[in-house]
Amino acid sequence: MTKAPKITPMLQQYLEIKEQYQDAILFYRMGDFYEMFFEDAAVASKILGITLTSRNSKDATNKVPMCGIPYHAASGYLAKLVKAGRRVAICEQTENPSEAKGIVRREVVRVVSPGVVVDSGILDDKDNLYVAAICCKGKGNDTLYGISFLDLSTGAFLLGEFLDTTNNGESILDQLTRMTPAELLVNENDLDLIGGLVDTATTLLPGLCVTQRPATQFHFSSCEELLIEHFKVNNLAGFGCNTLKQGVIAAGVLLDYVIETQKSDISHIEKLTPIDLELILQIDDSSRRNLELTQTIIGSQREGSLLSVLDHSCTPMGARMLKQEILFPLQNVERINARLGAVRFLYGHTAIRNTFRELLTTIYDVERLNSRMVLGNGNGRDMLALKQSLAKLPAIRELLLQCDAEHIRKIGEDLDVLADLHQLLENTIHEEAPITLREGRLIKEGYNEELDELMHIQRHGRQLILDLESQERNATGIAKLKVGFNKVFGYFIEVSRLQSANVPDTYIRKQTLVNAERFITPELKEFETKVLGAQDRRLELEYQLFVEIRSQLASESSRLLKSGALLAKTDFLVCLAEVAHLYRYKCPEVNNGDSIDIIEGRHPVIERSLPNGKFVPNDVHLDQETEEVLIITGPNMAGKSTILRQTALIVLMAQMGSFVPAKEASIGVVDRIFTRVGAMDDLRRGQSTFMVEMNETANILNNATEKSLVILDEIGRGTSTFDGLSIAWAVAEDLVQKNNKGVKTLFATHYHELTDLARTEERVRNYSIAVREWNDTIIFLHKLVKGGTNRSYGIQVAGLAGVPERVVRRAGEILKNIEQGEFNHDGTPSIAKSSNPRKPRGKKHPNQLSLFPPAQQDPLRTLLQNISVDDLSPRQALDLIYELMKHLK
C-alpha cells in the first residue's frame, strides 16, 4: 500500500489556499515563477504544452507532480488556459521574503475566468467580452427570466427581463446568442429547471463556460442592496430598472462574482443599462445568422459578414460600438435622422473626415486602459498609451466644434479633454517606461525630490565619493586621506598612522592596520546608507509613486469613461461616412410611414466580392396598400436570395444611421426583421431541416406585426410537394391577412402555383427574376421584373453546376413526359420503358400509387395524334377545326 506523501510547509500552504479555489487552477508564486502542483499541474501541462515534472516531498519516495511558468510571461499562458474554459486563481507573495519569519505569506489577488478578463493579451480589441447571469421565476409557458451582461474590461453593465412563452427559453437564448458571453452564471439549484436551456446555450455558443453559483446569492433583497451600495444611490429607479426584479437578481449575482474574483476596486462599473426591446429594431437569432450580420453561416467567420464590410473604424472603441449598433439598430426616427445628419456632414467634408481619421488612428483603447487603472493592473506602457491618447483630445474637440452638424457639435461640447490628467502623465511617467513595475525607469526626474536624489547618487556615485574625499582632505589638512570601501565595514576614511593623531574628534576609529587607521563619521554612515541602498530604495519609491499616480487616474474613472464613450461615438460616425464614400452609398430617407422604396439597391457584402460594376442592382417597393406581399419566382442562382437579403440589410443599415447601397431609398421604420432562408438543419438543437423551417415560420407568424419586415426564401421545401405547397400558400395568405393589415413580405418560391394568390388578394404582387434562354441553357440577368414565371430551369441549372450531360439529358426527357402526362398503367413515365428495355429486378408493384396520376386517353387526344399536319389542304384544315369544336362541347 502506497503511503501518502509527507507534505512540506510550502505544499501545506499551497493546499490550504487551493482548498478555497477548488474549481480553479492555482498559479502559486515562487520567486520568478508561478508553480502548479498535483492535479492542477497535470491539467495545465497538457493545455499549455509544457513539461510535467515532480517535486520531492519529505518522503522522497512519493513525488508531487508539478509544472511552472515564468511570471513575466504569464499573460500568454493565462490566455491559453482561459480560452480552454479554465478559471485561474493568481496567488502572489504578499510579504517581503527577506522579512518573513518562516514561509512567505501568500494570497490569491484575483481570479481570471473566461468571462472575467482584463489582460490585453486575451481580449479582442474589436469585441466586448461579457460574463452573463440568468435566473428565472415560474415554469412552463409563464417563465419569467432575468438576465444580465457585464464587460469588466469596459464597465458596460446591462440587464433585462423576458417572459418566455415557448417553454424552452427561446427569449433568453436569443439574448445570449446576440451578446455571445464567454461565461454564464447559473443558480446551482435551478439546473433541473433550466438544464435544457443551459445545454442548448452551450451548443449554440461553443466554448461557453457555465459556472454554478450558490442559491443563497439569488435573492432580490440582497442583490438590490449590493447594487445600491456599489452605485451609491438610494434606489435603482434612476437606472430605470427598479421594477425588473429578476433582472436585478441577475445583475446582483454578476456584481458579487466580479467583486469576489477581482478583489479590487471596480468603480469603473458606473451604471446599469436596461435592455429595452421597444427602442430597437429586433432581429432574432436565426435572422441574424441568415443575414450574416457579424459572422458567416458557414465557418462562423467575421470576414464575409456585414460587420467586416462596414468596419473602417480607427479605434477599438469605435469598432465595438459599430458591432453593437448592428445588433441593436434604432427605431426612433428622430435619433436615426440625427445620426444620418452627422454622417451626411462628414461624408460631404472629406478634409474634415480625413483629419478625424488621422487623429483617431493615434488613439488607444481609453475604455480598457481606464479599467486597468481602476483594477490596479495598469503598467507603464498603459500610461504612455493613455498619455498619447489624451494629447489628441484638444484637437479632436476643436474639430468637432467646427462641424456644422448639431449631433457632432454636441459631442464636442460634451468632450472633456482631460488636460489635467494629460499633464499629470506628462510630468511623471518616463518616456521609456517598461511593462514591469519593479525594474525602475517608471518615473521622470523632477517629480519627486527624494527620487531625484537617489537617481543622482546612482548616476554620480563615484564622483560623490571623490567629492567627499576632497572635502575631508581640506577640512583636516591630511593630504593623503582617502575614502575606501569593503564588504565588511562598508565605507571608511583611511589615514596613515603618522597622521592619525590629526583627525578630528568627530572621527570614530573602526579598524587599525599595520600602517593605517580607518575611521567612520555619522555623515559618512548616512552617505553609505544612501549609496548602498539607493538602487533598492529607488525601485521601491518608483513603484510607490507609480501606484499613487495610477490611483489618481482611477479616481477620475468617470471622466475617462465619458470621454472614451464620446471618442467611440465620433469614430463610429466617421466610420459610417468613410464607408459611404468608399462604396458609393447614399443617404436614405427614414420616416414613420409604412412603405419601403429602394431604387437600384445592392447587397453590401456580395458586391464587394465582385469586380467593380458587375453587381446588378434592383428596385424593391413594399407598402400596405397595393404591394404588401411580393411573390418572387425564378430559377436557382438567378439572385432571389440576394434581393431578399439585401432588402433586409438596407433597412437595417438605414435604421442604424448608415448610408445604404442604393441609388435612392425611402425607409418606413420597421420594428422587427424576420428571415426564413434556405434549407438547413440545426444539429445543435437536434432539429431536422423541416423542423427548423417550421420553427422559424411559426416564430414569424406568431410575432410579426404590421410594422415588421418578413423575408421568406422557400417555405415547405423540406416535406412532400403537396404538403409544402399547401403550407406555403397558407403562410403567404396569413401574412397578407394578418390583423386585417398584413405584413410587408418578400416571398421567394419555386411553387409557381403561389402566383395565383394575386388573383384573390389585392395586396399580393407577382415578380420574377429575368433569365434568357440560349441553346438549351440559360443566362441569368439577375433582374427583378414584374410578373411571375412558371419555370424554375432546374435542369439547366444542374447542367451549369456540372451534372453529367447524360443525366441532364435524361432529366429533360423525363420532365417532358411528366409535363405531357405520358405514363403507363402503373404511373411510370412511358419513356422509362423505351429507354431502358431491361426488365426490373425483383418484385413488381403494379398497384403502387404515383404522385402523378396516369393520363386518361380521350377522343380529342386520339384525333390529334392521327393528324398529318403537312398533308392537310386548306379545306381539310377548316373541316378539322369544326371537328375539334365538336369535341370541346
Attribute tags:
MutS, DNA mismatch repair protein, domain I, MutS, DNA mismatch repair protein, Chain A, domain 3, six-stranded mixed β-sheet, alpha/beta, Nucleotidyltransferase, domain 5, 889 residues, elongated, seven-stranded mixed β-sheet
Tally the beta strands: 27
Q: Any idea what the shape is? A: elongated
Unreliable spans are: 681-686, 831-855
What is the CATH C-level name of the largest domain?
Alpha Beta
* Spatial order of strands in the largest sheet: 13-23-24-25-21-26-27
Instruction: Give the domain tally.
Output: 7
Gyration radius from CA atoms, angstroms? 39 Å
Describe the SSE topology:
Layout: H1 9-20, E1 25-30, E2 33-37, H2 38-48, E3 53-56, E4 63-70, H3 74-83, E5 88-93, E6 106-112, E7 131-137, E8 143-151, E9 156-164, H4 170-179, E10 183-187, H5 191-204, E11 209-213, H6 220-231, H7 245-262, E12 273-274, E13 282-283, H8 285-291, H9 306-310, H10 316-327, H11 333-348, H12 350-361, H13 366-374, H14 380-391, H15 393-402, H16 406-414, H17 419-428, H18 449-476, E14 482-486, E15 490-496, E16 508-512, E17 516-520, H19 522-555, H20 557-583, E18 589-591, E19 596-601, H21 606-609, E20 618-622, E21 629-633, H22 640-655, E22 664-668, E23 672-677, H23 689-703, E24 709-713, H24 721-737, E25 744-748, H25 757-760, E26 764-774, E27 777-786, H26 794-800, H27 805-820, H28 831-835, H29 859-865, H30 874-888
Helix pairs in contact: 4-5, 6-7, 10-20, 11-20, 12-20, 13-14, 13-19, 13-20, 14-17, 15-16, 16-20, 18-19, 26-27
